[in-house]
Amino acid sequence: MEICPKCSTNTFVIRAGMIRGKVRYHCKTCDFHFTQEHSEKSIPQKQIHTTIKDIANIMGVSIATVSRALNNKSDISPKTRDAIQKLALELDYNPNLFAKGFQRGETKTIGVVIPNIKRPFFAGVLSGIQEIANEHGYRVMICQSNESYETEVTNIQGLLASHVDGLLISHSKETTRFNQIKNLFDKGLPMVHFDRICTEVDTPKIRQEDFEGAFQLVEHLIQQGYQRIAILAGPPELLISQKRKEGYIHALEKHGLAIQTEYILHGDFSKEFALASLDAWQQLPEPPDAIFAIHYLNAVEIIQYAKELGIEIPQKLGIVGFGDEYLAEIVEPALTVFHLFPQKVGEVAAALLFDVIANKEARQQKDVLVQGQLIIRKSSLKKG
């Protein structure tokens, strides 16, 4: 509090605006006006979040005046505007973009829910999403369900509390109920599904070549001379598991090979399940001579375990996997895969979401297919 230079009291000294770039004060005790340049000691210690109100209190002006100055409005004197902007810089003031956006009915933020951020596929998808979001001037809030339905629901609730403008989602392996998604879609929230999609809601969807990719992988094995081909499938309720299994069956049927139920195992994507499956198959009277894993990481794990068991790859056991990353290239022998181009998946998903945000009337179901590519490596080259 400033001391009045006339009566030497500060009991009733108040700020009374600005004059010639200086703070103007009024002492009510002696009815005296005086000016004082705001000194460093009059500026409070920098806070984590300096507000317009903080600046207004220091300058002795109204919040509206500070707002006009920070927005370079013409209905304020240049000296007052410059003084306010200088103080704002000293206090590290940053505008509350969320509050501004909320007033306009937008926050320039999108939410993303994925099952597992550690998986290279989803890391690649996030990279693509972030790139497109940057181009549109949006921020990205990322949540991980960790393959839990309850966590997925909590994630979505948190994103809604942050008033995201749209949602990109790939469901957890536990998710079989979609009431929350249905309600949000009915309320008009822009939303796009990718990878693990929901067919119960007419949201736009980014699809991959799950059926076609599986067909190409299995047909490649058949062309290499493998006859007893097993499939390490994922949870049966997942659409990607269903589609990739259908591609596997179609390839066998096309080439006249029998579909043997003992060669078809469903489970989670854990390493324990993959290794236990190989053990179970090896106990059969006629073990499979090739394995198609719908998740490439399980295929890598099987390669390593098979070598420990003394099984020659690819001579005695051919192995292929769905999806690709660096690990699939450096494992010995290198894994044959169907590459999904996750960065492209993320880019296409984000671009589609921004289309829906810009035109909410066009949010009806729209499927976009991101094509993959068969990459043949040594793990399946029986014929060389």
From TrEMBL:
Annotated keywords: DNA-binding, Transcription, Transcription regulation
What are the recorded GO MF terms, alphabetically? DNA-binding transcription factor activity; transcription cis-regulatory region binding
Q: What Pfam families would the database entry show?
A: LacI, Peripla_BP_3
Claim: Hydrolase is one of the keywords in the record: no
| Domain HTH lacI-type per the UniProt entry, residue ranges | 50-104
Instruction: Note the SMART domains from the entry.
Output: HTH_LACI
InterPro entries associated with the record: HTH_LacI (IPR000843), LacI/GalR-like_sensor (IPR046335), Lambda_DNA-bd_dom_sf (IPR010982), Peripla_BP_I (IPR028082)
Could you confirm whether the keyword Nucleus appears in this record? Answer: no
Entries under PANTHER family matching the protein:
HTH-TYPE TRANSCRIPTIONAL REGULATOR GALS, LACI-RELATED TRANSCRIPTIONAL REPRESSOR
Q: What's the protein here called?
A: HTH-type transcriptional regulator DegA
- Organism of origin is Aquirufa nivalisilvae
